[in-house]
Prior knowledge:
By secondary structure, the protein is mainly alpha-helical. Helix content is 50%, strand content 5%.
Amino acid sequence: MRIHLKRKPCALFVRLFLIFVAIAAILSTISHLLYYKTIDTAGLLSGQDIKLLIDAESINAKRIGRVQKVCSKYNLGLFKNSAEVSLFKHPPTPQYSVFYIDKGHKLAWCPVYKAASSSMLHNLCLLGGFTEQFLGQTTQQLSTIARKIYPELDYPQAEEALQSCLKVIIVRHPFERLLSAYRDKLENVNVRKEHGSVHFYQSYGSKIVERFRVGGNKTKTEEVLRPGTYHWQKDQPKPAGFEPTFQEFVRYLISTDLLSYADDHWIPYYLFCTPCLLKYDFIAKVETLFRDQMYIIRALDVQQIIKPTWKHQTKGSHSIDTISKAYFSQLTRLQIEKLYKKYKLDFELFDYIPDVYYNYALD
């Protein structure tokens, strides 16, 4: 007797659905290609440029979707779905006053400091009418110049402005941002005084050393540092010898209520820019900065005024990985784990993992 096997309707449906998805993806790509070709009336975009723009748009949709999913997972902000208390303390409203809002070009940017903030401030100043020559010669901080052009707005003016603007946030790996903040603001009081290194030592550094170092400020920094666990620039003055180590800075972060006492340079993203309370239109990352800047510039149609730029990019013979390995080797695995838990929501929201840093640990 011969048995006839019938194809299950469910399996057939799945195959048809996958075919439909593939066709939709192809049509979407063709549509985007035609769109970018249409708006590029001057013919300045290469095929590679158009591909970068299409990739940026596609990846941005995934980044936005992830943020919404994580906010919902932890019952936060606009995505709160029950009366259950969240695992994370969270602001009740956005921090409208931190935004730089350019109404004329319809751009609203939340400044995550130590995540391409200098690059963004530079371009905002150009959009505000300043020249490259002026910005290259001035001793004023870019944030000061930009804030004069784009003054702080509070509710409801800020809320109204945000509705008509492209809302942008730029993030980077949370551990890399913290290390950058430490090296820029706390490691060496003898450099970058124009950017507040003395202020940061007086406000944070001296107190960190007094609290977390055996002997407090009477013990020199070089006495507690192992060779190979730091990287001082050879073309810059050496630290004064009383600045905190990276480990001491991390111990400070672990023990501090960052909701109440964090500086803007190391406050978690979710507390400062509140992505669970605002629906950002574009989430850029330092790791894909050129492509993401290119998309933002094209979306705003300001390519005649600004271009992708990266100020304060790490230079020299040492790679970012090498520098990170040196500093994180000051930490134990337990300290890295505690630091991760402190910034866990940032990691999840923006799809970063801490795994490789455990390999750098002291133990």
